[in-house]
Structure of Putative glyoxalase superfamily protein PhnB:
Amino acid sequence: MDEAGKIKYWQSMAFRDAEAMMTWLSAIGFVEHATYRDAGVVVHAEWLWPAGGGLMFGQAREGGGIKSTGGSSAYLVAEDPDAVFDKAVAAGARVERAMVDQDYGGRGGTVTDPEGNSWSFGSYQPS
């Protein structure tokens, strides 16, 4: 069983421009597991967060499972959240909440991706 086969929770999103978002996802550290296209349109993609977790997405389109784009949010645990935060901003994200040490432990911050989704990066790992 590969890493994707162990993941039991997959966040799902739709993007207006899935190709551009794949570039952004790669920039912050997601790894492509599978991407399926039909006539050049991304109809289904599975990308992995190396620390654990997966994201399924496709291009927003007629007949697609998710109708809305933007407005989703995700929290990603990272060993170096400052580095991921900086990569996200360098790739076009807007700072929503700067990186700070959290009262409950760890360090975190939040950005908005080019399509309006909120991504928080932190070292806090719930246990």
